[in-house]
Structures
1.
Amino acid sequence: EAQVTQNPRYLITVTGKKLTVTCSQNMNHEYMSWYRQDPGLGLRQIYYSMNVEVTDKGDVPEGYKVSRKEKRNFPLILESPSPNQTSLYFCASGKGGGEKLFFGSGTQLSVL
Amino acid sequence: GQQVMQIPQYQHVQEGEDFTTYCNSSTTLSNIQWYKQRPGGHPVFLIQLVKSGEVKKQKRLTFQFGEAKKNSSLHITATQTTDVGTYFCAGGGTYKYIFGTGTRLKVLA
């Protein structure tokens, strides 16, 4: 089954404790991206990747890191989480070039 | 930078009533996509519009792309409780997808 898999589904952590949210897709998509969803603000793009080893900043990259060492995986790293990073995070993948996106199930992150 | 605004932010309708959400971009879009997110779920792709003035239908849903390719609308005829959710438009660039703020639809039975 074609899917984008995110883990964990829920995460509660404390300020400053490094964490990684994993994302994996099985559709051989070149394009992957991370979004955060906050009430009233919609989906805002954090980082995206056009292919292996090629990444670029979205609209809200501060406080986040990404890497794309393999085509299928695109982890999101918060090296020193802060409470303003409490949010619902979605990973998405697609063929690129403006084609439709497939989203993961989301990760609800709470930073205390 | 490029912004995509959606109105209204919330809409409550009685089952059977029609519903429309509007999407407006500050710049010309190469295409527009629409997604639906059910409560507690993730966004799911509905449709993509590419041509100026394009109109597409999916059963009770009608999607329109403006002539200037800066606005779009989604109209649902005779809403049902299964239409509940948040509808997002997204300006599809080559790699940067700019999502609208979303319209949250509640349908009262």
2.
Amino acid sequence: AAGVIQSPRHLIKEKRETATLKCYPIPRHDTVYWYQQGPGQDPQFLISFYEKMQSDKGSIPDRFSAQQFSDYHSELNMSSLELGDSALYFCASSLGRGTDTQYFGPGTRLTVL
Amino acid sequence: DQQVKQNSPSLSVQEGRISILNCDYTNSMFDYFLWYKKYPAEGPTFLISISSIKDKNEDGRFTVFLNKSAKHLSLHIVPSQPGDSAVYFCAASARGGGADGLTFGKGTHLIIQP
């Protein structure tokens, strides 16, 4: 069965640079969620989109923005990167907002040097 | 403030025995609970979920029990197999309150010993 696809899987950036992470949800899933997992931490909810509109916001820094496109894929844009942004970034998708289980992608490991 | 707590960072169980992973929560708005399994360098894999209107849900070797009055849930794995060795995350959401994001516990590393 098709799963959530995230790209790139690994990304290395310098401080103050920008990064864009991409997420392709499971086919027919219309809701996308972004999570950040720091070293030794639990995943923290950042933001979600339902039918291309932002539906909920968690602990996403102002330096980050995201959007969902007409094909339901989503991109997380991160600017002015800081060392503390180094983490695993997971995307999850579900069919319907708040009505179904979230299925996670393999994650993008971002390292900020 | 950790709203979902998994107080055992690790648990070691003999192969073939029962594994019991525990989770406590503090937010009474949570109405949907999930367990995820995670291997290193992979995303969390959904295992089983339970709505707050139920007290038990079973799927093969996995059973989740919910005690709303105690704000406690547990995941039972019977019998435990070597492939079950992984980090298990308890997660909760307040779907009735319109919140999308899952709140995770810090995880329990389950080690199945042969």
3.
Amino acid sequence: GQQVMQIPQYQHVQEGEDFTTYCNSSTTLSNIQWYKQRPGGHPVFLIQLVKSGEVKKQKRLTFQFGEAKKNSSLHITATQTTDVGTYFCAGSGAGSYQLTFGKGTKLSVIP
Amino acid sequence: DTAVSQTPKYLVTQMGNDKSIKCEQNLGHDTMYWYKQDSKKFLKIMFSYNNKELIINETVPNRFSPKSPDKAHLNLHINSLELGDSAVYFCASSQVGQGGTDTQYFGPGTRLTVL
């Protein structure tokens, strides 16, 4: 079955440093979604990427979808303490709407 | 108004008991899901229901049974609870439109502790 791998599992950064999490799929994806889960909270949708090579930005967050539609990344510029949480990627294969979640990257920001 | 709600928020129970978790969504979505998140924060899909029909069953033990009285509700019933069932259970819903997957809206979660 489809597998979505995400690295790193944990990342500790000083406030103001950049952060990147990477997602790789064993199969070609029809789309990829990113979610953020704050400590004690529930996953909240951030963005969806559909097109090969697509890049989207949300303020300090930049999302990329690979040309082969098998990998994606989330980059946060100049992290803030409000960025703390676990970031999940989730992808679905062609013809399927079942989402497979990566294991998440837990981001800690040291003030 | 809460889009996806779950009850209870916390559930502490003894091994061997039977318990249910309820989920309701007021978004008009046609697909609802149950996820299990373990202590390592891994999110694993358990079930999904589309228009009251089970369409995914990720080989969870048959002690777990989803029940959907209508498309706005998807309850999870667990028989003979085991220690390993301790986790946070999230309900989610989505509207699967043309073109495939749509955004999933998660409920606040139910933290189940089996003693």
